[in-house]
Write a structure and sequence with these properties.
- By secondary structure, the chain is an alpha/beta fold.
- The chain folds into three domains: 281 residues, Glycosidases (TIM Barrel); 216 residues, Rossmann fold (3-Layer(aba) Sandwich); 84 residues, Immunoglobulin-like, CATH 2.60.40.
- The chain is built from twelve helices and 33 strands.
- It has a nine-stranded parallel sheet.
- Strand 7, helix 5 and strand 8 form a beta-alpha-beta unit.
- Helix 4 packs parallel to helix 5, helix 5 packs across helix 6 and helix 11 runs parallel beside helix 12.
- The chain is globular and about 70 Å long.
- The N and C termini lie close together (11 Å).
């Protein structure tokens, strides 16, 4: 951060139309993922008009092979209408192959001839109406139903061959990979996959939209090394769930802290918030409201971990998913050694090394769990220990906490991961809070490791699926920033995930990604998208984004020639406004916030407080600013 009083001039686009600005967006850059071939098929006719209202022209959904081809060569006539529905509504449809495969084609990479015949059938039936076909969803996720990189390459090649044989103009979209998983992608390229797609594709789920720049750069650099750097890149999933405030933080964590011998009212919670460094899964999105019983929160960087004092911050939360920059893991262990209480709220802690590249990007490396011995904690899962259920049949408070906690599987998702005591030292203690299992297995899901050996602190750990999302207000702020940053980073087309909430489980993040509620109520993000697509429609120039410190300023020109500017701050830790002095050349026709509400029109030389909510300025030829 620049200190108060230091001004830095950021001059943007000396000419009205730079070479970069002359490039135009594709005609239909806005898409949404929506399960219209699955659970949303019954409500799809009501969704299509709402998609159009929001400015969405593409919809993406799985094509489930098993429901279309019931037996080899025998196709279900009732399935194809699911694919026809968005086309008849005037939308483009992006199908994902092969969806859920039939028994005779499981798994597709092991039955390429059978799979190839199915792809040929799809291509022949829709050669004139569906141009793009995505090949697999998140195959790098590590699930049993996912191919390895080496097996994905021939699957992609076979899809390419079948589609192109029917119509050379059909386009193959690479699988939607999890983040910029360049290691996995490169393994497929080594097997020749770079020759068999028309569009690269990925799912950059991160804590901040602005991290898209780094992930897109990483993919583009890899593609360039293999001679395909000129191929377009799409994002077919990105979004943030509006999961309500979670039971773990509001109810379980205060009980756990008391069991650790601390008073929540006397505890300050340190949250690692360092998205600006490229750490995509920190606690940047976690608000003060998650910790109402605690003294307060303090947002810290990764470097500040090295000197974190347990006397000043009694609790520490380092990450919200399973990845963490392991270069800083020794600092976490030292914090616990000095008496601090570490909170690990989600599944398998420190399972991936979040390797930062120093340019705002990262690579995830799986490191498993041997290093957890340093913290005296451990876990077991269905794939590591015989007898552990893949999906537990119950979750409930441990016997000593049945009257203190309310936890039920109906409000949470099954995980198949459990805490273990095998790394504890003799003087350490463990207090189970929530347990799970089935008729033949029981083990803790959430508990407190009270450490009294070489480590003097505590570890509060949960293998349950506890992923806090964002507020509806923050989701609406993130949405336009996502599309603007994505387009500016060279992404041709972006699909928001998801168009509608698709479950009713209050603690399950998958239930709350939608722009609509499951009763078709419009969330603020829906309205923010509608506003963005009016100000940045297809065939506008590609936004040019420049930044200094936390402030971002984007510029583009609409097809009608109108200049539009978007001003916001990204990494200001949610609780700060950044004052800037604007320099404006030309008349401002309208000043709007991200929701379309009119704002006071600033004059050149005036000071504006920039926040995470975009300020749109329509009309001026040139805008620049000084940081105060």
């Amino acid at each position: 951060m620049f200190k108060h009083g230091i001004s830095t001039l950021l001059m943007l686009a000396a000419a009205c139309c730079t070479a970069a600005e002359t490039a135009r967006l594709v005609a239909d850059p806005y898409g949404a993922a929506c399960h219209i071939t699955r659970k949303e098929q019954w409500i799809a006719p009501k969704l299509f008009p709402l998609m159009k209202e929001a400015g969405i022209s593409w919809v993406r959904s799985d094509v489930d092979w098993r429901y279309w081809e019931l037996k080899p060569g025998e196709f279900n006539p009732q399935y194809a209408p699911l694919l026809d529905a968005p086309l008849k509504a005037g939308l483009h449809f992006l199908p994902i192959l092969p969806g859920d495969p039939p028994k005779f084609g499981k798994w597709p990479w092991e039955h390429l001839d059978i799979y190839g015949k199915f792809v040929r059938h799809c291509a022949e039936k829709y050669a004139r109406s569906i141009q793009y076909w995505e090949v697999y969803n998140e195959p790098d996720a590590g699930s049993p139903w996912c191919p390895s990189a080496e097996k994905y390459a021939p699957l992609l090649k076979r899809t390419w061959q079948e589609l192109k044989a029917v119509n050379p103009e059909l386009k193959v979209v690479y699988a939607g990979i999890v983040g910029a998983n360049v290691d996995w992608v490169e393994r497929t390229f080594r097997k020749g996959a770079h020759q068999y797609f028309d569009v690269m594709n990925y799912h950059p789920y991160t804590s901040m939209p602005e991290l898209i720049f780094a992930s897109a750069r990483q993919l583009r650099e890899l593609m360039t090394r293999y001679g395909v750097g000129d191929k377009p890149i799409w994002i077919t999933e990105i979004g943030w769930p509006t999961t309500p405030l979670l039971d773990f933080y509001l109810e379980v964590l205060p009980v756990a802290v008391r069991e650790a011998g601390l008073d929540p009212a006397e505890c300050t919670v340190a949250l690692v918030c360092d998205a600006k460094s490229g750490f995509a899964f920190g606690m940047d999105n976690h608000p003060r409201e998650l910790f109402p019983q605690f003294k307060g929160i303090r947002r810290i960087t990764l470097e500040e971990l090295k000197t974190l004092n347990p006397a000043e911050c009694q609790l520490l939360l380092t990450h919200r998913e399973e990845g963490f920059p392991m270069a800083y893991y020794p600092a976490v262990v030292q914090y616990v050694k000095k008496g601090g209480t570490l909170v690990l709220p989600y599944k398998l802690p420190y399972y991936f090394d979040h390797q930062l590249d120093g340019r705002g990007g990262y690579v995830l490396k799986q490191v498993n769990g041997d290093h957890l011995k340093d913290l005296h904690i451990a876990w077991d899962a269905w794939w590591t220990r015989k007898g552990v259920p893949q999906a537990e049949s119950y979750q409930r408070p441990a016997p000593a906490f049945r009257d203190k906690l309310h936890w039920d599987l109906k409000d949470h998702s099954k995980v198949g991961r459990f805490l273990s005591l095998r790394n504890m030292k003799e003087a350490d203690q463990f207090i189970p809070l929530v347990e799970g299992g089935n008729s033949s297995f029981n083990a803790p899901l959430i508990g407190v490791y009270k450490l009294n050996s070489d480590l003097k602190g505590n570890v509060i750990a949960s293998t349950a699926s506890v992923v806090y999302g964002v507020s509806e207000k923050l989701q609406a702020q993130y949405l336009p920033r996502t599309f603007i940053c994505g387009f500016a980073a060279g992404i041709e087309r972006i699909f928001w995930y998801n168009f509608i909430n698709n479950h009713a489980n209050k603690n399950y993040s998958e239930s709350h990604f939608g722009l609509l509620t499951n009763t078709l109520g419009q969330k603020p993000a829906f309205k923010a998208l509608r506003q963005l697509t009016r100000l940045l429609p297809g065939n506008s120039t590609v936004p040019v984004v420049e930044t200094r410190d936390d402030v971002y300023l984007a510029h583009w020109i609409k097809p009608n020639g109108a200049h539009v500017w978007a001003l916001w701050s990204a990494f200001n830790r949610q609780d700060l406004n950044t004052p800037v002095t604007l320099q404006i050349d030309g008349k401002i026709v309208a000043a709007l916030n991200h929701m379309g509400a009119r704002q006071p029109i600033p004059e050149s030389g005036s000071v504006v407080n920039v926040t995470g909510s975009i300020l749109y300025l329509v009309g001026p030829q040139k805008v620049s600013f000084q940081l105060k």
